[in-house]
Amino acid sequence: MFWIQQPLGDFGVQIDGGYLATSSVRVLVVDDFEPFRRVVGSILQKQPELQIICEVSDGLRAVQMAEELQPDLILLDIGLPLLNGIEAARQIRKLAPESKIILVTMESSPDVVQEALSLGAQGYVLKTHAGSELLAAVEAVLEGRQLVNELSDRFRDARPAIKQPLTLRYLP
C-alpha cells in the first residue's frame, strides 16, 4: 500500500548559515507498520518545509518509488517485506543517487549499522528515539553530515573514537 501527494512549488535544499532554507524537502517514508508511518508524519509536520510525497510499506515498492520520484530524503525501515531495507538502500543508492537516506529502525546491531552506513545511508535512528531525535537527524543529514543516534554499548565499543556520551552521534 502506498500513496503519493503531488508536491507544489520549486524544490531544492539550500543550506544557509547552518539553517535549512528551502521551499520544500520531498520525503519518501518507508515502513511496513502504518501506525509508525503516522508517527513519522506527525513528527515531520513540525517542520513545514518537510513534505511527505509518498509512503510505501515494502522494500521493492520503496526502490520503485525512489527511482520514479527522486525524493530529497528517504526515511527507511530495515525490517521490510519483499526486500529488506539494507538491500533496498543499496539499490536506491544506484537509482536515486542524490536522495539522502536515513534508516529509522528497531535494529541496533553494530554490524547492521556499519553495513548501512558503508552502503551510503547518511543517518541511522532507532524507532524508540524517533520522537526526540528524528528532526535533528533530518537536519543534520540535509546539511551533509552523517548521523547515528546512540544505539547501544556494543556500538559505542565498536567505535572507540567516539567517547562522549551524546544522544546523537555525528560521524566524520
Cα-to-Cα separation, first versus last residue: 37 Å
DSSP, total strands: 10
Domain module tally: 1
| Structural class label | alpha/beta
User: What characteristic shape results from the CA principal axes?
Assistant: globular
CATH superfamily label: Response regulator
CATH fold naming: Rossmann fold
Contiguous helical run count: 6
Based on the structure, what is the oligomeric state of the protein chains? single chain
Radius of gyration: 15 Å
CATH class division = Alpha Beta
Give the mean pLDDT. 78
Poorly predicted runs: 1-22, 151-172
Largest sheet: 8 strands, mixed
The percentage of residues in β strands lies in 25-35%
CATH architecture: 3-Layer(aba) Sandwich
